[in-house]
């Protein structure tokens, strides 16, 4: 993506490529050149990837996401939007957290607590 921000997955890929090169003994200046060529980014941005990798090491690539459409009662949807706004979160992040916590509790059909 020339001239623009990369998504989190691509960022992780670039930092991890830098980390791998650094771990194999390649100097930061050379890593910068390699990344700029490999990913078609500016040398300045490539150096940022290399510096991040040198300081922090590899990063965890985010799990791919997918669109998942559900129909909710209007009042519930409004409450979700409001809670996301209040928490400074996105609706997706809020729903992901809520469903993850719900499923971790092991609810099963017919189970009432």
- Helix content estimate: 55-70%
How is the quaternary structure best described? single chain
Order of helices and strands: HHHHH
Strand content: under 5%
Mean pLDDT: 91
Rg, please? 21 Å
N- and C-termini, Cα separation = 50 Å
Given as residue ranges, the uncertain stretches (5+ residues, pLDDT < 50) are none
Task: Quickly count the helices.
Answer: 5
Largest sheet: none
Query: Care to count the β-strands?
Result: 0
Shape: elongated
Protein described:
The protein has helices at residues 8-23, 28-39, 43-56, 74-87, 91-104. The model has no long low-confidence stretch (mean pLDDT 91). By secondary structure, it is mostly helical. Helices cover 62% and strands 0% of the residues. It is elongated and about 55 Å long. The chain has five helices and no strands.
Question: Helices, strands, pairings?
Answer:
Layout lengths: L7 H16 L4 H12 L3 H14 L17 H14 L3 H14 L9
Helix pairs in contact: 1-2, 1-3, 2-3, 4-5
Task: List its traits.
single chain; mainly alpha; 5 helices; elongated
What is this structure, in a nutshell?
This protein is an all-alpha fold and 113 residues long.
């Amino acid at each position: 993506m020339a001239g623009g921000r990369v998504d989190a997955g691509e960022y992780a890929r670039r930092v991890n490529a830098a980390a791998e090169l650094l771990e194999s003994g390649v100097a930061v200046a050379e890593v910068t050149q390699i990344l700029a060529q490999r990913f078609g980014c500016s040398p300045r941005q490539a150096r940022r990837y290399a510096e991040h990798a040198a300081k922090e090491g590899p990063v965890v690539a985010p799990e791919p996401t997918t669109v998942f459409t559900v129909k909710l009662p209007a009042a519930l949807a409004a409450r979700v939007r409001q809670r996301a706004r209040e928490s400074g979160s996105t609706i997706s992040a809020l729903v992901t957290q809520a469903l993850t916590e719900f499923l971790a509790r092991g609810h099963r059909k017919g189970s009432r607590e």
